[in-house]
Amino acid sequence: MSTTQQGTHSLAFRVMRLCKPSFHVEPPFRLDPADLFVGEDIFDDPLAAANLPPLLSSQLTKSMDSSDLTYSNRFLLHHPSDAMGFSGLLLLPQSFGAIYLGETFCSYISINNNSNFEVRDIIIKAEIQTERQRILLLDTSKSPVESVRAGGRYDFIVEHDVKELGAHTLVCTALYNDNDGERKYLPQFFKFVVANPLSVRTKVRTVKETTYLEACIENHTKSNLYMDQVEFEPAPHWSATVLKADELHPVDNSSTGGREIFKPPILIRSGGGIHNYLYQLKLASPDSAQMKVEGTNILGKLQITWRTNLGEPGRLQTQQILGTPISCKEIELQILEIPSLINLDKSFLVHLNLLNHTDRELGPFDVRLSQNSAHEEKNVMINGLQTILLPQVEAFGSTDFHLSLIATKLGVQRISGITVSDTKEKKTYDPLPDVEIFVESD
């Protein structure tokens, strides 16, 4: 690609994008001459099946005479692959073409001396200008090009990792001494647009304590993309496991030992092809919830690398993917043990544990059975004092205690309404979830 010379300058820039060539495809369809004269069913006749192929081959041999300068046979099928329209030739890039985010823009730049005299002390600069920044690719200020003879040229190559979408301008400038000693300044501009090669749509679902992340990647280019790597980098305190339909066991992304030495790339076809990836996310350890700030919902980001048909690489990194905020409870009450045998009207002990998930000391606490409704009859009650006092619990600490209960009705009953209150902060926490027990007669 080149631009016209600006003003009366001895020098002019010529720019060509360096990239892989493309396959040269001939638009006309090729054909087999036999298809024009006979149908497939003619070979059902034994006589025709024996005599027709030699007759056609002799006629084709005559039509392929190298002395035929009309090239009338250029549309004929000489090989089954000819039907695809590929000529076997590669086509060099004729323009900047489509440039996508994540690729490396490589350009061959030539500064030509179109005058009849030598040009000296040339300072050359090449920059990429975007909507947000200006990036210097080449600067010969400290070592200017000494001279370019009449009709000569000076060539160089620049590269730039494309990290922004939208309009880009390759700015090439030259400061040089002309034949009459005048210092001249030549700016030239080469514009191109960077498009998005693919889109990533994510969906996050949480089932109990496990989070599932689904990522759908869609190809927006006119070339097939071969995905070398689509890996999820989890945020701190998370671990990620990729789930595959064709594997019995998931592959852990968090350790390099489980990665395959070689895995074939996944093809995402041009013009809207898609592929889905599924990841299982878990908190890395039970203590992670203590280190997690309440309301933080950053899960991690995807690292995506690919290659095109002729091996040109591309790389993208998504923004941080957000999930449902995990609220960290200040106080958590849980049952550790319930007797297997519970008799009617006889007390039994329930072993409980109170955990402090905060970084400060909390308490003292009292534990009681709350009434969900004034008319609701409780068949499992506290045996003895209706309120149990517990001492303070240190930061990230816990305390165990026993609660004496008694059941007043046979059959399946529920332990419900066990509630903890902070007597110092005058704060009541959510009650313990209901637990079912079976009460037998003595």
UniProtKB/TrEMBL annotation:
Superkingdom, taxonomy of origin: Eukaryota
Transmembrane stretches, start-end: none
Record InterPro entries: TRAPPC13 (IPR010378), TRAPPC13_C (IPR055428), TRAPPC13_M (IPR055429), TRAPPC13_N (IPR055427)
Gene: LOC107962330
Record protein name field: Trafficking protein particle complex subunit 13 isoform X1
Protein family: Belongs to the TRAPPC13 family.
Occurrences of domain Trafficking protein particle complex subunit 13 N-terminal (ranges): 9-194
Domain Trafficking protein particle complex subunit 13 middle intervals: 198-320
Residues covered by the Trafficking protein particle complex subunit 13 C-terminal domain: 339-430
Organism of this sequence: Gossypium hirsutum (Upland cotton)
Pfam families for the chain: TRAPPC13_C, TRAPPC13_M, TRAPPC13_N
GO CC annotation: TRAPPIII protein complex
